[in-house]
Amino acid sequence: MAVQAILMDFSMDPARLADENGQKAVFTQLETVLKDYVPNLILATDMKLDGGSLKLLTGKRGTTVFVRLFDRGLVTVNIEYYKEDNEEPLISFKSAKILEGQLNKYISVIKSQALPTIKRCVFGRYYPTSDERLLEYDIDGILFDEQSSFQKVQVVHSKSFGNMLVLDDLQNISEADLIYTETLMQRGKESYEGKEIVILGGGDGALLYELLKENPKYVWMLEIDELVMKACNKHLKSICGDVLERRKGPNFEIIVEDCMLTVKKFTNEKRKVDYVFGDLTDIPISDAGCSELWEFMINIMRAAFDILKPTGKFMTHGNGATSPESLELYEQVLVKMNPPLTFSKSKAFVPSFLEDWIFYQIAFKPDHE
């Protein structure tokens, strides 16, 4: 059950909507066609607005129809109604396309578009890309939904991607996303055998699980949110195995606290490791690298290099390839770091993100002192 929203857009000669009489004539034609699709449709409100007008109609099953006419030659039609799971839709996407075609003929538009029905006020089906385009997922249920002290934690089921971790309404990782973890760790390009590794974050357990297959000497995973691990241990075992359940083994340990506390402890002990993974937050989408989140990321990176061996590497995810401005800002930060750093980057299409993602491999410059 959900509120169904059907959205249609029309463009026409602005001269036809330039005044009140023209807008009334176009609306009358629209109303005639709409009454064939929405029974008992009546005009409830007629408002004159700057740049045009707004008409609100009501009909069967509590349906509302908003018709917005802009004197610049644009018309939008938004139809909303509530549908139970076992009810037939009042207007399907197929019938919306037929309605669009009929309205096209009646009001002689230049171009038009009808969008697939948007389902609102139920469990989330819509998540943004890195550059804030909206994606609809084939989610058919919520398996886990709780609020921790740090974030909203959900595991949802997608018909295409299996179980998927969602944090603060942003998709994070799914059962179909092994390529994400393998690109982050540069599997086949980096050797982790006999190496000491720190993971900053990584609460889904996928990175730890895959790294342990490479026979490292020891891995410390530093995760602050117990609830994320609880959710993933129950619903995402295909990507994390039993590591979140065991918490400790001969060559790994999960420490549940702010990762900076352990990193500072390592720094005070002058302990150095071979790899540090930044598996916390994505590079911010920002027009200036000076926000609180940017400062947090820079501090994390500085702390990571304090505990890295001269030959060590900091491995992290960046952001979507369609967000070049944020990636460029991040690279400008890397260039200015002291001691000087060098970096390379990789790209992979992550299935549940439905886009290419950028990953960074960062190291000390060979000649740094």
Descriptive report:
By secondary structure, the chain is of the alpha+beta class. 27% of the residues lie in helices and 39% in strands. It has helices spanning 20-34, 93-107, 178-185, 206-212, 226-235, 237-240, 243-246, 259-268, 292-306, 324-336, and strands at residues 2-11, 42-49, 52-59, 63-70, 74-83, 111-114, 118-120, 126-128, 134-136, 139-147, 152-158, 162-167, 170-174, 196-201, 218-223, 248-249, 252-256, 273-279, 308-320, 341-350, 355-364. The strands form 4 sheets. The chain has an 8-stranded mixed beta sheet, with helices on both faces. Strands 1, 2, 3, 4, 5, 6 and 7 form a 7-stranded antiparallel beta sheet that branches. The chain has a 4-stranded antiparallel beta sheet with strand order 10-11-12-13, covered by helices on one side. Helix 1 (20-34) crosses helix 2 and helix 3 (178-185) packs across helix 4 (206-212). The chain is elongated. The termini are far apart. The mean pLDDT is 92.
